[in-house]
Amino acid sequence: MSIAEQRLLNQSVTKSFFQYLFPTLIGMMLMSANIVIDGIFVGNGVGSIALASVNIAVPVWSILISVSLLIGVGGGTLYSITTGERDTGRAKQVFSISMVITTLIMAVIGITGYLAAESLARLFGANDETLQYTVDYLKIIFMWAPIVGWEAALSIFVRNDGSPKLAMSGLIISALLNIVLNYWMIFILEMEVTGAALASVIATAAGLMVYTFHFLKKDAGLKFVRLKWKKDDVVTVGKLGFPNFLSEAGTGLFVVGYNIALAYYAGTTGLAAFSVINYLHTFVFLAFIGIGTSIQPMISFYYGAKKYEKIKATVKIAELTGISIGVLFLAIGWIAAGSLVSIFGVETEEIRQLAIKGIRLFFIGYLFMGVNFVYMTYYQSIALIKQSIGITLARGVILLIAALIVLPAWLGTTGVWLALPFAEGLTAVVLLVFARRGVMKQV
Q1: What's the number of domains the chain is made of?
Q2: Predicted local confidence at residue 264, as pLDDT
Q3: How many percent of the chain have pLDDT more than 70?
Q4: 38 inside domain
Q5: d(CA 4, CA 93)
Q6: Torsions phi, psi of 382, nearest 5?
Q7: Where do transmembrane segments lie in this chain (predicted)?
Q8: Is the pLDDT higher at 423 or at 192?
Q9: Within a domain: 43
Q10: Three-state secondary structure readout of the chain
């Protein structure tokens, strides 16, 4: 019996939830810290133009991580379901197929992205001032695309196989190494934006190496086996992972949409202010993904094992946790907005004041984001993909784009900052009023 089976069959839901939550939450926030650290060092060591350039390039991470989540979460969900059904042979096949697919797709994305780096930079919103910095950053990340993909996908499988602490350890090592390398490459070697990109990918590779220790455990369920390509397994992995793909890809759309809106309504000042908020948002956003990632192995396993009451208990405790974390982040944003802006080395008072206002309005969205991720993950974990995709598209694409078009025309930059809270809030209200009752009855 694997580690995951022993834990989920014999422990209470509450104990299992927090055993997954704390390491996963810390790990996800440290993952985002790799990107935030880039911003802090670039802002203080190179300047505001370079900081805006790295922010423009941030969607490249969304591209790579969204594909990794498509395969990793899809494969991890099917792996947990089949483990709950005690079909260990199929579970190993799912893992092996997922890692091979990740390798192939990341190699294609890496080569294509490297060759088209300048065109992508323009597409993401780079202008003449920011273009070269943005291209330099993009090329390094695309060169290391397979490493980024392996790290993201393998961390999910390690967590699903009952080792959330090891997954956390890899991210801790990655984050600490990223700090050291950023300082060395930016302040000592004076490699500017290129140094920040290299620091991130080298640190990511170190995290990947940590995950490989999972294979040395005697009771590890993850094993590479000879592939038996089954169309049904490949299609199922893609379907189960598609909501996470959309969610992460939507993050890239969110960045591009906000950059375009703020460039129109506030110019370069608005772009610089948003770069600060976006770095903070990356940190918080992955915390909410961490809640979803924590409950996915649990709900998928319970679903495969037909433990329906435990699914209901998992959803309830995740709801409460998501709302509590949202309240905490909103309080931090309102109380410490000035201090948060200061750590990025903002150069002018105009940018500083716009960023402070933006944080206080933008962070309202965090009150609702946790609820949305809980229900998106619930439906995904029991293979109800249409419902999960509907939530993802509503909060991250349809309502967000509509809000970015309508609210700024009415409220100016205030409307830009309120676009995300509007999209998240309306989605959460609909879920709590209409979906929650059905979820509790269904399980």
Answers
A1: 1
A2: 87
A3: 93
A4: yes
A5: 17
A6: -105, 20
A7: 20-41, 61-82, 94-117, 137-158, 170-189, 195-216, 253-277, 283-305, 317-346, 358-378, 390-410, 416-435
A8: 423
A9: yes
A10: CCHHHHHHHHCCHHHHHHHHHHHHHHHHHHHHHHHHHHHHHHHHHCCHHHHHHHHHHCHHHHHHHHHHHHHHHHHHHHHHHHHHCCCHHHHHHHHHHHHHHHHHHHHHHHHHHHHCHHHHHHHHCCCCCCHHHHHHHHHHHHHCHHHHHHHHHHHHHHHHCCCHHHHHHHHHHHHHHHHHHHHHHHHHCCCHHHHHHHHHHHHHHHHHHHHHHHHHCCCCCCCCCCCCCCHHHHHHHHHHHHHHHHHHHHHHHHHHHHHHHHHHHHHHHHHHHHHHHHHHHHHHHHHHHHHHHHHHHHHHHHHHCCCHHHHHHHHHHHHHHHHHHHHHHHHHHHHHHHHHHHCCCCCCHHHHHHHHHHHHHHHHHHHHHHHHHHHHHHHHHCCCHHHHHHHHHHHHHHHHHHHHHHHHHHHCHHHHHHHHHHHHHHHHHHHHHHHHHHHHHHC
Cα–Cα distance measured from residue 226 to residue 324, given in angstroms and rounded to the nearest whole number: 45
pLDDT digits (tens, 9 = 90+) for 299-345: 888 888 788 888 888 999 999 999 999 999 999 999 998 888 887 76
Domain annotation covers residue 130: yes
In tens, the pLDDT along 396-436 reads 889 999 999 999 999 999 999 999 999 999 999 999 888 77
- Quick check: 1 pLDDT over 60? no
For 293, the domain range is 13-442
**pLDDT tens digit string along 200-252?**
899 999 999 999 998 888 777 778 778 777 777 788 788 887 887 777 667 77
